[in-house]
Records
---
Amino acid sequence: MKVLVVGSGGREHAIAYRLALSSKVDEVICVPGNGGTEFEAKCRNVNPKDFPQYENLSLSNAVVKISKDEKVDFAVIGPEDPLADGISDVLWAEGISVVGPKSAGAALEASKDLSKIFMKKYGVACADSATFTDKDKALAYVREKGAPIVVKADGLAAGKGVVVAKTVEEAENAVKMLMEGTSVGDAGKKLVIEEYLQGVEISVLAAVSVNPEDSSKACIKAFLPARDHKRLNDGAQGPNTGGMGAVCPLEDVSAETMRLFDERILQPTLKGLVAEKMDYRGFIFFGLMLTKDGPKALEYNVRLGDPETQAVLPMMDFDFADLCKAIMDGSLKDFDLKWKSGFQVAPVMVSGGYPLKYPKGLPISFDEEEIENSGAKVFIAGAIRDRRAKEKVLITNGGRVLACSAHGGTFDEAWQKAYDALRGISFDGAFYRKDIGLPGAAESN
């Protein structure tokens, strides 16, 4: 079996790695892939820009042509942007099976307003909110409600469109910045302003199989709970980032919390997907706040989370390719999600200056022996192969460069292995948090 994976980040490296572990998968085509997938067993990068027959095509059309040329059995879409742009619609129309919702389902992430409308309509536990396209009305609402309050750009903003304002002045500045500025472009023309929820954040990824042609097979199954650490510095301090590391599972999440999540968030979401006749065969990522009143949904992401994927997928004690097939063919109800015991810890190494301006093209040094002895798996995100070098040399190409993901029977064992591996990797300005998963490291409101 041959599988295609769209994307170039650490999430896609983890997806490709898990697919390649399947005895049923002969090759994974990564479009465009990165420096990690280039050297991953059974994986091959195909960057459309490097091939005349693909370089002038849109991403969707390039993926269709590559899929047909390579005779792939199915495709997995990693990032949110191509999903929102309708890549799954195009692939299915061309007879190519795909893991990833069609554009109607992808809009649950592409528009926070639509997502809130959906949540309220189907009784998903979430924060109260209001939506605005008029700046003056948004400012008046903020002054009426007071602070703390949360201001969100409606559209996709690569993690830059959410401001948790502790004062009314901060909220007013956020409204002006998002609606008038250029930081998030058109994504900020419409704002969702919502209630500030007190609690601790977690992430729950899930597999979804909803085919409007046969709603009797509709199913959603949650994975183990995980936690991303979004702040740059130890102790959950500093600016927000795309994620400085993840842990899975979570000792502070009880069985009762997960029961309430299933009752108040997971099942109402499935009910809504079926009622709206969405073709949603893929993954969904629930950003949750654990409040005194139980878990509440902060947002939907219509794909696997990053860096949560690098901590959750290694915990799978089943064939990931089989799960993908069950999602597509409607047999998810009968698929048994089995998980390894123990813990996975995945701290992220970033470029100096991130999340603001940072250099690129810095050579990365790997102590292969130290990494191997640690037992950790290195997932590459913002790094590519240095084509000028004769040997295998990776250079930085992004802010979040890599993650070291390690498993242990105890959290302490997993944590030690992951950080042992990090110490075997270096480049100029390399930085990482030293408290991923430790007490006091989690973001809380």
---
Amino acid sequence: MKAGARILIVEDEALIAMLLEEMLTDLGYELAGTAATLAQALELAAATELDGAILDLSLGGEKSLPVADALAARGIPYMFASGYGRSGLEEPYAGRALLRKPFDFDELEAALKAL
């Protein structure tokens, strides 16, 4: 994904969301929105103009998989962000891009370019 793309952040930890917002801005991406709950994320995924998304796998005890499905239905690329690694991804999501927490600036940049 190229700089300038509009990215949706789905993250329930405020500090991580703010860090992602800052990193994305520094990398030249635009913020399409930020959601901290599954309901907010589903609303933004359905109605917002965006080019990609970063989804925290676990949102307050709920998985963000319905958001992934909504994005996939619209043809919008996304990656999961998780501290659990690949073991937290069930089929059919196991092959999706994963940004392992904690991540740094270079890891985020590489993951976005690969997306």
---
Amino acid sequence: MNTQEKWHEMHSLKRHQPRYPSSDLVAFVLKNFKTNDQILDLGCGGGRHVKFLAENDFIAYGVDYSKNGIKATQELLDLHKLKAELKIASVDDIPYEDEKFDGVICYGVLYYNPIELIEKAAKEIHRVLKKDGVAYIVVRSTKDYRYVNNEKISKYEVLVNENDISKSAFKENGMKMYFFDKDEVKRVFSNFNIKEINRIESSYQNDSIYDSHYCIVLKK
């Protein structure tokens, strides 16, 4: 089963459809955008961030390559009587015209792809942003336990093999995953003005393992 098929299957299950938007993304969006700005959630999954955008008077768009993800997002919007434009597409081929969006968010999506596709996605995000538009990108860092504890395919890529069913990485078994240090962030997003590279970490099992993410703020 390839990554797209695996996410299609996972997005059909309620337990893989988080209900609430991430608090860091909420703070970023409310600080950086104004009512009726057009914002794209690239890799929208089950729709939690599209819902947040729509209910806070932004013009919301969602793209995901999982049909089940788009279906779940539409059902969530319908439940709350909200509207957004949704399309099935890959992150490296965004189905919108140049300079359409005031903002793009891409939360925990890119690292499930090989570097060639990530690099194309970075160019696509740049293309669809308006001049002075802003993107908020969340990727996993090389401090993350999935990187530390798994077989390295290359400097930044691993094959996930997690035996502990209690860890979130268990559901990612068999996936190739791409991780970032700051140098790789700067290389991949070199066509942007990189405004901030921040880290969010959570520790588990008596501070022995870490979920570690970079939250990247980009301006066109």
---
Amino acid sequence: MNTTFSCVGCGKCCTDHHVPLTLDEARMWADDGGQVIVLVEAFLPNGLGLPAAQREHAERRSAVVRSGTTEARVAITFAAYNTGRCRNLDDENLCRIYERRPLVCRIYPMEINPHIPLNIAAKECPPESWETGPQLILGGELVDRELAQLIERSRQADREDIQVKERICASLGIHTTALKGDGFTAYLPDMTAFAATLDQLRSQPLAQQASEWQFHLSGDDIASQVLASGARVVTEVPVNYAFISLRAA
């Protein structure tokens, strides 16, 4: 596959997309008055909810936690909460924080997850974006070395930040996850508390004791499998989070 790409400034990638953030970027977003959304998914030691080929990548960006009588590995994404146009997009579709924009914005349209190939049909960029511009992919390989380095920086931040992210969640009372592949749990924390907790936990040694988490599932069939593994399943109606199902209707 050969692919060229040139941004035409349509602003679609800056509209209705929650942009994943590193810890530094999440703190900056809070300082700028933005809202962070916390998205959580997890998988179990028996591999439920995770294709075998993706296990190594998933383990590297997840934290080991307790759930009932078993362990789980929880992956946590802090993202810029964008409903509608990004708060940093001006009337001419130009980014007001371009020089300090998040890594994921710099990497677009490429994917961070190595198991998700670039799919032009899934992008909202207009056709002319792919008709001219520098070579992006040649023979199926990414040819932009600077872009490749940014992708690796983002993956490294995922790995390095996860323990602090998990402790932030524990401190903020975030302890319900979805099963990877079944959905996400989504939280909108108070940003004053979020920023203060982030600052506190980054400046002190992390606790070694694993936190206790529970699963919110899309249906009884999946819930029975998770319960059989020994994990804890919540049945109450969500109070401080929303469940985003990935299950086909």
